[in-house]
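Sanity check

After download, print the first record. It should look like this:
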Amino acid sequence: MWGKLLGACFGFMFGKFLGALLGLFVGHMFDRSLKQDFDRAGGFRGFFNHEDVSQRQALFFSSCFAVMGHIAKSNGRVNEMHIRAATQFMDEMGLSGEDKREAQHAFRAGKEADFSMNATLREFREHFAGRFDMLQLFLEIQIQMAFSDGHLAEQEKALLEQVAKGLGVSKTHFNFILKRYQAEFAFRQQQQRFSQQQQQHHQGRTSSTSDAGMNRRQALDILGLEEGADARTVKKAYRKLMAQHHPDKLVSQGLPEHMMKLAQKKSQDIQAAYEYLKA
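Expected C-alpha cells:
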C-alpha cells in the first residue's frame, strides 16, 4: 500500500496525472515484491519465530533418528549395518554428550514395537508444511540410511515409500530422489576406493590407481537429467538443486545445525556433477 501511495504522490509531482499513474504502477510492483519477501520470511510470525525454528530443529532431529531406527528393523530384526551407519552419521555430525544421547534414545524408540511411524510423519509434516525442501531432505536422509549396506531390500524400499507418502511426496518424485541418491552413492564409493588406493600407492603397497572422476551417467543422474539434456536444462537443474540444498537456508527453515554437513555434502556432489557436464 505505501509503495503505491508514495509512487502516486511523487509521480504527480513530476508528471501530473500521467506521472501519478506511472508512479502508482511502480509502487504496486514494489509492494508486491516487498510482500513476497515478507511472506518468505514468515509474515508477522517472522518477528517472533526464533523459538519456532528451535522447535522445528528439535522435531527434525528426533523424528529423523526415530525413523532411522524403524528402518533399521525393517525385516523384523535390527540390521547391525544400519546401527553402525547411524553411529557414523552421529559422529560425522559431531554429536557428543546430551545431543548424542538424545539421538540414540530416538533411534532406540524407533525400533520399539509400539513406534508409530505414521503418527511421527504426520506431526513432522504438519510442522514443516510449505517447506518442501525440508520434507525432501528428510526423505533423502532415510534413503541414505537404508542404502548404508550398498543395496536396498524390498522391505526397506516399502518402508521408504511409506515415508514418502506420509510426507506428501509422490511415488514419481520418490523414484526420482532414489535414482539421484544411487548415483551419489556410487560416486562417493568411487572416491573412497580411489582415496584408499592412493594411500596404498604412497605407502608402496600398490602401483596402480583407479580414476576417481565422475562419469557422464552419474553426473546426469545426480542432477536428475536424461541423456541429451542441453546446457540450459543442465544449468536450470543445477540451480534448482543447489537452492533446495543450501545449508544456511535449510537451517533457517528448521534443519538442526549439526546436520549442515549433510546438506554441504549434497551440494558438493551437485556442484561436481554440474562441473563435469558443463566442461
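If your output differs, re-run the checksum step. Summary of this record's structure: Residues 34-49, 207-211 have pLDDT under 50 and may be disordered.
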